[in-house]
Amino acid sequence: MDRSKQHRAVVGWGAAASLLILAMVAGDILLAAADWRVYLVVQDALAGKATEAEFTAAADFWDSVRGPRWLLLLVPVYAVFAVWMWRARLNAEALGGPGSQRRARAWALAGWITPVANLWVPYQVVSDVWKASAPGRSAPRARLAVWWGALLVGTYVGNGYVNLVKNELDTVDDLRRLVTLSTTSAVLDVVAGVIILHVIHRVSTWQTQRRAEARR
Q1: Which of 23, 54, 134, 199 lies at 20 to 30 Å from 141 by C-alpha?
Q2: SS3 for the chain, per residue?
Q3: Do 179 and 36 form a contact (C-beta atoms < 8 A)?
Q4: Which sign, positive or negative, has the C-alpha torsion 59, 64, 68, 73?
Q5: In whole angstroms, what is the distance from residue 161 CA to residue 34 CA?
Q6: In terms of Cα–Cα distance, which of 155, 94, 91, 161 is closest to 119?
């Protein structure tokens, strides 16, 4: 069998990637909630309304969700999604032909880690996989632009959050900026997460169905 035409199973990898992405988004929401809890307790403390126990509980919760366990989650998220992306990219080429993909296969992985190119190449790869996988008429791709925009801006905001946390949070204004960044990052991550979950599900379903139809 021509290996370029061989179908790669994607449903299982897509399900695993989806669960990990959900966990990562949930972590972002928890982090934003923890930031808000600390900020509000500090506000109450300045007004003489918060107890020491409330402040300690808020600080403990903040430390727990900022722990390294959430950073460790990034590794399997990216690894499993990369496997799904690679297999989906190969299937898309088999379904639509080499001309359906603007980028060579290697860019399905390298596009995410290559400086400058990572600003648009992953979007092109996902967009081409989506288009080649869709049965019949071309599926609308506007949602992919929203996903990519939310992901890029969310990454930028997230980096700002990390840089702020590295410094001493000495004032209420520092905490206010912190909650603004974490809330914005969480909202953008939810938007990007919901869309990419939809993309993973649809592409996996389309490719599996078209493979089954071709074997009849």
Answers
A1: 23
A2: CCHHHCCCCCHHHHHHHHHHHHHHHHHHHHHHHHHHHHHHHHHHHHCCCCCHHHHHHHHHHHHHHCCHHHHHHHHHHHHHHHHHHHHHHHHHHHHHCHHHCCCCCCHHHHHHHCCCHHHCHHHHHHHHHHHHHCCCCCCCCHHHHHHHHHHHHHHHHHHHHHHHHHCCCCCHHHHHHHHHHHHHHHHHHHHHHHHHHHHHHHHHHHHHHHHHHHCC
A3: yes
A4: negative
A5: 14
A6: 155
- The rounded distance, in Å, linking the Cα atoms of 63 and 30 is 11
Q: Is the pTM of this model over 0.70?
A: yes
Hey, what are 73's tokens? 């989650």
**Residues near 101 by Cβ (< 8 Å), separated by ≥ 6?**
89, 92, 93, 125, 128, 129, 132
**C-alpha triplet 200, 154, 143: angle, nearest 5°:** 40
What span, in angstroms and rounded, lies between the C-alpha atoms of 121 and 116? 9
Q: Which of 102, 120, 99 is nearest to 111 (CA)?
A: 120
Residue 186: pLDDT above 80? yes
Question: What are the pLDDT digits (tens) for 155-170?
Answer: 999 999 888 888 877 7
C-alpha dihedral (186, 188, 190, 196), degrees to nearest 10: -140
